[in-house]
Amino acid sequence: MQTDLVAALDIGGTKIAGALVDDRGRILVRTQRATPAREDGETVMRAVEEVLAELTASPLWSRARAVGIGSAGPVDASAGTVSPVNVPGWRGFPLVARVRAVTGGLPVELIGDGAAITAAEHWQGAARGHDNALCMVVSTGVGGGLVLNGRLHPGPTGNAGHIGHISVDLDGDPCPCGARGCVERIASGPNIARRALEGGWRPGPGEDASAAAVAAAARAGDPVALASFERAAQALAAGIAATATLVEVDLAVVGGGVAKAGDVLFAPLRTALKDYATLSFVQRLTVAPAQMGTDAGLVGAAAAALTRRSDVTAV
Ligand SMILES: [Zn+2]
């Protein structure tokens, strides 16, 4: 018997990816468009529709039973709308209704991209087998999601676990979100580079002032570069420890471009966690690198659609 499939969409500020995915998370068909992020909302939607048109043209489409969408946030899963910070043409955009309209009325499940990556790591990656985990993406921004009691916990609007905008520095720098001293304001790639530049570090000839360049300098022993990563690690550790203390996660998975720094990030992160995760019930908290790579958003969106289907079937 041929198994049912789900369609998955991963919508970000630079690309819109689509796939048909089976119940074991295998991607059978995939397609992609650049996100026309600076264009009006209808132009962005046309790119989504082009991705969906390639999926619906596949001979496998007849087996698709649901659509899962992981989108850059904020999203509002209860309203079916998205307002991605990096896509100004979409504010309260009715993405769920629009996708349903071009996919023959299939059920559509919407979650934020942090929740999608968390679903993927829990299903197939570093959080597999963990009933309570925090998964994070540290790159241009800092996002995340939660697994609680063995299930993804997206929250009512799909944004739960958004650790990047927890404040860890009460009087810290203003954050674009409106608060101060957010984890993202200290630990994101651009902020790691900014802090290193302020301390006098300079990229090599022909090199960008990126977190990757700071990581290379840190590996070579540059004290300013090392200090910038230590500060980022401290902010991440404080946010992770706060999360663990609130909801008793025992694992924090860290992915994204900044996590590619490897031990330059993870060594000070593990040290800093000992300073902040101090109570008996959080002392066993561990940190692990993400395993899912660039398909995490698609696989997680598929997981959300499959989970919803099994919930509906189970009722
Ligand atoms: Zn913030």
Automatic annotation (TrEMBL):
Pfam families: ROK. PROSITE patterns: ROK. SUPFAM superfamilies: Actin-like ATPase domain (SSF53067). Coiled coil: none annotated. Belongs to the ROK (NagC/XylR) family. This is ROK family protein.
